[in-house]
Design brief:
Elements: E1 2-6, H1 10-23, E2 29-33, H2 37-46, E3 48-52, E4 55-59, E5 63-64, E6 75-78, H3 85-91, E7 101-104, E8 122-128, E9 131-136, E10 139-144, E11 147-151, H4 158-173, E12 177-180, H5 184-205, H6 218-235, H7 244-254, H8 261-267, H9 278-288, H10 293-307
Parallel strand pairs: 1-2, 1-6, 2-5, 3-10, 6-7, 7-8, 11-12
Antiparallel strand pairs: 3-4, 8-11, 9-10
Helix pairs in contact: 1-4, 5-6, 5-7, 5-8, 5-10, 6-9, 9-10
Length: 312
């Protein structure tokens, strides 16, 4: 089998390292696809530096910036930011056939509407609570272990189901705690609730995840943001699992020293995924005439920060 990972950012580098481990001695292979040709050459020459605690190791990888030079691809692991999904699918469109499985691994829920960009390929979706911090080009720190869920929104054909099961097995062999889930949509929303409650707050307050539990008044804002998201989910008929606010606080505690992906983006003066996370709640709230004042405020605050460094 041929796995293709698109997007060597924090999650992409983490998964590349673990998938490479999972594929060892199997005869299957992984290729990285990057729009940046110079970075693709760098990764091929230098490999990915995988850091866990004080331990570092270099994982050899093969990267390319030209999808035309790749042979048939069985599974595409799409690890780009939510706002880059459409462009990335267009970039690797020559590789997407009726026998290809594309696994979406984005934050938020904006990518759920992108299945029309796949051609004849089949879509699967994943969500993970693994922590990853990009320390430099091709240098990722595994910032915390989590759980990964993979699944389909609709009943798949046998071929696609087999490809997803092989993906799960490779992830597991690489060291991930992973399972296939029949209710992956509910799990995507469960992850969204946590992102809604953590990411924008850390980005606007410039704090680590754990500090959200100690800063005065922030628990009220966190609960308000999560509660608004829960109301939207129920309006859409989504199964709300467990207690999303409690789950958000637990993640803050378990990842107390972690820097959220949105704060990493702000610190590196990159575009954030605010539109796919809190923004998605605001848009859906408008559709259902449900007020979302806290998520609207968080969107404005993050957008104001972005406006200070992003070119118009």
């Amino acid at each position: 089998m041929h796995f293709l990972l698109v997007g060597p950012g924090a999650l992409g580098c983490l998964l590349s390292s673990l998938v490479t481990k999972g594929l060892a001695a199997t005869g299957d292979r992984l290729t990285l696809l990057d729009h940046d040709g110079e970075r693709a050459e760098y990764l091929t020459e230098r490999g990915i530096v995988y850091q866990e605690g004080a331990s570092c190791k270099t994982v050899p990888v093969t990267a390319t910036s030209d999808p035309q030079h790749l042979g048939p691809v069985d599974v595409v692991l799409l690890c780009v930011k939510s706002y880059d999904v459409a462009a990335s699918l267009a970039f690797c469109r020559p590789l997407l056939t009726a026998t290809t499985l594309v696994v979406f691994l984005q934050n938020g829920i904006g990518h759920l509407s992108m299945q029309g960009h796949l051609g004849e390929a089949t879509a699967a979706f994943g969500t993970t609570t693994e922590g990853a911090t990009l320390l430099g080009r091709g240098h990722v720190r595994h910032a915390g272990n989590g759980v990964t869920s993979l699944g389909f929104l609709h009943a798949p054909d046998d071929h696609s189901a087999q490809l997803l099961e092989k993906t799960r097995a490779v992830f597991a062999a690489g060291g991930l705690q992973v399972h296939t889930a029949g209710n992956v949509l509910a799990r995507l929303w469960a992850k969204l609730f946590i992102n809604v409650g953590i990411n924008a707050l850390t980005a606007t307050l410039a704090c680590k995840n754990g500090e959200l539990l100690t800063l005065p008044g922030i628990d009220v804002r966190m609960r308000a943001a999560v509660d608004e998201a829960m109301r939207i989910a129920r309006a859409e008929g989504i199964e709300v699992m467990d207690d999303p606010y409690r789950a958000t606080r637990i993640v803050c505690s378990k990842t107390a020293e972690n820097v959220s992906s949105m704060l990493q983006d702000v610190r590196n003066k990159r575009r954030t995924e605010i539109d796919a996370i809190n923004g998605a709640i605001v848009v859906r709230g408008s559709n259902y005439r449900i007020k979302t004042p806290e998520n609207s405020l968080l969107c404005r605050q993050v957008q104001e920060i972005e406006a200070g460094y992003l070119k118009p």
